[in-house]
């Protein structure tokens, strides 16, 4: 056994080398023996590490990962006008969504990747960032994080607030789940699904709140520039077999798929899926060739929310590689519909 130079040097200098080294060697050997005995008499059994995880990050963000790789991130800081998800990772690690309109970043600054909002709630605009009568969607708390091999999920509570008066018009309970979606023919092992469950009610003391008739809201997706029809030569397809904006603008459908080029060698896209339990199913979809799509909650008729009759919604986003055929996208939608029903509000 060798004495470390930094421990022996003082003793060598003082002429006490032999005694000091012997004392040190005995103490070191005894400590080693005790450590080995202690290590040999104790065991532990680590729990399996969940394949799917959601982890809170600084600055009010949460990252959803699968086998250690990020799939999406939820941004919910109180300084935001509304929460959003970015990126939504597809082939070759590229995001299939972007922040803002590629040609109009000022008046379309609200196009933040994937978001929940509405253009008129009791006349208050939660959709845009500019103009009058604006509202903000403010996160009050994250009530749950859940990690499993099958999926990861988080629950949160949000207040829809009239910015000018501070009045809370809606209380929203939100659950976001991320799970892999491989297996079926035409699907890639890296494909995944984001499932959103929303529940809207009114705050105490308020009788009702109305989602007014509008084509903007309740969910929007701003696709990557390279996927857009105009900029990238992409393609929009819905469950009725209609193509692109002219054929399907504000037409009802079970799902809409927006796909196109992601890199020079990879294609990918997102299918936005309505659920049969939603009001006004199948929803009209507001789509644009410039790279965005959304499901209209109340295009022609308003929807009233009360404490006795909360509004519950479920949407799915299938994030995939390649450009799926109508039949392949239909099977993905059927798999989404078969998923177990859950509540947005923690029970």
Please characterize this protein's 3D structure:
The chain has helices spanning 5-14, 17-41, 229-232, 244-248, 326-338, and strands at 52-57, 61-66, 69-75, 84-88, 114-118, 135-147, 152-162, 168-180, 192-201, 208-211, 217-222, 235-238, 251-252, 255-261, 267-273, 284-288, 292-296, 303-306, 311-321. With 347 residues, it is α+β, with helices and mostly antiparallel strands. It folds into two domains: 5-41; 52-338, Beta-galactosidase, Chain A, domain 5 (Distorted Sandwich), CATH 2.70.98. The longest helix has 25 residues, at 17-41.
Strand content: 35-45%
Oligomeric nature of the chains: single chain
CATH arch. level architecture of the largest domain = Distorted Sandwich
Q: How confident is the prediction overall: mean pLDDT?
A: 90
CATH topology-level fold name of the largest domain: Beta-galactosidase, Chain A, domain 5
Query: Helical amount among residues, as a percent range?
Result: 10-25%
Shape: globular
Radius of gyration: 27 Å
For this structure, what is the CATH class of the largest domain? Mainly Beta
Name the poorly predicted regions.
1-31
Sheet with the most strands? 9 strands, antiparallel
Number of helices: 5
């Amino acid at each position: 056994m060798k004495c470390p130079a930094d421990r022996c040097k003082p003793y060598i200098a003082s002429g006490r080398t032999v005694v000091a080294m012997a004392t040190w060697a005995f103490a070191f050997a005894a400590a080693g023996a005790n450590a080995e005995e202690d290590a040999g008499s104790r065991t532990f059994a680590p729990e399996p590490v969940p394949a799917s995880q959601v982890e809170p990050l600084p600055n009010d963000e949460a990252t959803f990962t699968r086998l250690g790789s990020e799939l999406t991130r939820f941004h919910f800081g109180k300084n935001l006008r509304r929460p959003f998800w970015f990126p939504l990772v597809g082939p070759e690690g590229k995001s299939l969504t972007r922040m803002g309109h590629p040609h109009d970043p000022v008046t379309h600054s609200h196009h933040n990747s994937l978001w929940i909002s509405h253009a008129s709630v009791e006349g208050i605009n939660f959709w845009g960032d500019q103009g009058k009568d604006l509202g903000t969607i403010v996160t009050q708390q994250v009530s749950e994080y859940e990690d499993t091999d099958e999926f990861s999920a988080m629950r949160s509570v949000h207040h829809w607030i009239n910015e000018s008066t501070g009045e809370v018009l809606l209380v929203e309970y939100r659950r976001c789940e991320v799970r892999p979606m491989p297996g079926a023919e035409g699907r890639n092992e890296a494909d995944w699904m984001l499932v959103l469950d929303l529940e809207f009610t009114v705050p105490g003391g308020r009788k009702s709140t109305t989602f007014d008739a509008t084509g903007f809201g309740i969910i929007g997706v701003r696709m990557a520039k390279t996927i857009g029809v105009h900029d990238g030569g992409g393609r929009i397809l819905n469950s009725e077999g209609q193509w692109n904006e002219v054929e399907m603008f504000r037409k009802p459908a079970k799902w809409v798929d927006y796909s196109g080029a992601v890199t020079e060698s990879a294609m990918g896209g997102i299918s936005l899926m309505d659920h049969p339990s939603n009001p006004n199913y199948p929803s009209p979809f507001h789509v644009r060739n410039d790279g965005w799509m959304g499901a209209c909650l109340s295009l022609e008729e308003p929807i009233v929310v009360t404490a006795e009759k909360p509004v519950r919604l479920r949407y799915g986003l299938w994030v995939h590689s390649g450009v799926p055929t109508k039949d392949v996208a239909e099977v993905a939608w059927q798999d989404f519909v078969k998923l177990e029903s859950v509540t947005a509000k923690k029970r």
